[in-house]
Design brief:
Blueprint lengths: L1 H18 L16 E4 L2 E5 L12 H14 L14 H14 L3 E5 L2 H16 L13 E6 L4 H9 L5 E6 L4 H10 L7 E7 L1 E2 L4 E2 L2 H10 L3 E5 L14 H4 L8 E5 L10 E5 L1 H10 L1 H4 L6 H16 L2 H20 L10 E7 L1 H13 L2 E2 L1 E3 L9 E6 L6 H17 L4
Parallel strand pairs: 2-13, 4-5, 4-6, 6-9, 9-10
Antiparallel strand pairs: 1-2, 3-11, 7-8, 10-11, 12-15, 14-15
Helix pairs in contact: 2-11, 3-11, 4-5, 12-14
Family: Belongs to the class-II pyridoxal-phosphate-dependent aminotransferase family.
GO molecular function, one term: acyltransferase activity
Organism: Candidatus Nomurabacteria bacterium RIFCSPLOWO2_01_FULL_40_18
């Protein structure tokens, strides 16, 4: 009886998504990730991957993964603190910390888990009001950009509500952020944390880190940056948004992933002061109760950091390709968000139209994904192109030609 009610409710919800043109379809790749992929027996151009440096199927990455399986096996069947830590895990954590300019780092299964793990640990450990205190105020205040990643939003939900004050400021509005910080100056919060994405994944916008860091120091707050879409892309050495702005080693806490530019598999991290990292090793539930990252991923991630150091031209190439594609779209007359990141959004507004265009592009050999509410705000549907260092100018020109054809057909340009 009750299961039937649930099933009927689920069916209605799914039908509503389909009618609104918001039903997501998973395209099945028939081979490795790259600038071209095979879908349903057809080669298409891939412009919908976080494979910014083209390392997802790089022969050196693949070789390292194979060698790791030969030497260390497939998996460890354990969490880190029981029998799941190998020397290579500690090697990667040390190498990553040196790369990011922090004292230490800790590996998580994904960056989603790293964000959940950090905030739940810190807020619930230090945010509780001591017994006998004549106040009911929460003792950790978090100031978060409204466009921060879903993992950050969900991390706040895991925190006990009595332990945290959540202050959401309009995207990039640092005047509003400072007003909040000023209002909270004398409220006696134990900690204040300003939280921002380094690169906002739906827009490709960069956080204003210099000003954010200035505010954090002025008002005694910690700065937390989720740099998932920046590491391996921005900065002279690819060390991310802090390096891009000349703030390398100056951000209190960084989180990120090996699942995008750095090999494209899985694996997240938090990097910062050694005491904070040690606390997470002792208390973070998403670390303590998740299996260790497989040896193949660990060794491939080490190799990815080595390749980034040995092949700095990849950073130049992805930047050049991004500018070339962005300028090409503008010349064709598309509404393109400004930016310098390889995320290049083409704004269409309507969800159904976005989904239709994505389908037509794929039929002509161009794979790009449409995004709509609730992934982006209502009325702000878009095609999100993602450029790679592995793309050739010929492939980019082909993509632009297909965009022109479909744009004219749909009367969008």
């Amino acid at each position: 009886m009750y299961s039937k009610k649930l099933t009927e409710s689920v069916k209605k919800e799914l039908e509503a998504l389909k009618e609104a043109g918001k039903f997501k379809i998973e395209r099945e790749l028939e081979g490795a990730q790259g600038p071209e992929v095979s879908i349903a027996g057809k080669k298409v151009l891939m412009f919908a991957s976080n494979n910014y440096l083209g390392l997802a199927n790089h022969p050196e990455i693949v070789k390292s993964a194979h060698e790791a399986i030969d030497q260390y096996g497939f998996g460890l069947s354990s969490v880190r603190f029981i029998s799941g830590t190998e020397t290579i895990h500690k090697t990667l954590e040390k190498k990553l910390a040196e790369f990011l300019g922090t004292e230490d780092s800790i590996l998580y299964s994904t960056n989603f888990m790293s964000n959940l793990g950090f905030f739940a640990t810190v807020v619930d450990l230090f945010g509780g009001v001591p017994s006998g205190t004549p106040t009911t105020k929460s003792q950790v205040a978090i100031y978060s950009d409204e466009l921060n990643h879903a993992s950050i939003i969900d991390a706040f939900k895991l925190c006990k509500k009595e332990n945290v004050v959540k202050r959401i400021y309009p995207h990039g509005d640092l005047v509003a952020l400072e007003k909040m910080l000023k209002e909270d100056e004398d409220k006696g919060y134990r900690f204040k944390i300003i939280v921002t994405d380094g690169v906002f994944s739906m827009e490709g916008y960069l956080a204003q880190l210099p000003k954010i860091l200035e505010l954090s120091r002025k008002y005694g707050a910690l700065t937390f940056v989720d740099d998932a879409h920046a590491v391996g892309v921005l900065g002279k050495r690819g060390a991310g948004t802090p390096e891009h702005f000349g703030l390398h080693g100056k951000i209190d806490i960084l989180s990120g992933t090996f699942g995008k530019a750095l090999g494209g598999a899985v694996g997240g991290y938090v990097a910062g002061k050694k005491e904070i990292i040690e606390l997470l090793r002792q208390k973070s539930r998403t670390y303590l109760f998740s299996n260790s990252i497989p040896p193949s991923v660990v060794m491939a991630s080490i190799k990815a950091l080595d390749l980034l150091k040995d092949m700095p031209e990849l950073l130049d190439k992805v930047k050049e390709n991004s500018e070339y594609f962005r300028n090409g779209l503008k010349k064709l007359g598309f509404n393109v968000l400004a930016g310098e990141h390889p995320i290049v959004p083409v704004m269409l507004g309507d969800a159904a139209k976005t989904q239709e265009m994505s389908k037509k592009l794929l039929q002509k050999g161009l794979f790009v994904v449409g995004l709509w509410f609730p992934v982006v705000p209502e009325g702000a549907a878009r095609l999100r192109f993602q450029i790679s260092a592995a793309h050739t100018h010929k492939q980019i020109d082909q993509a632009l030609k297909i965009m022109e054809e479909v744009g004219k057909e749909m009367k969008i340009m």
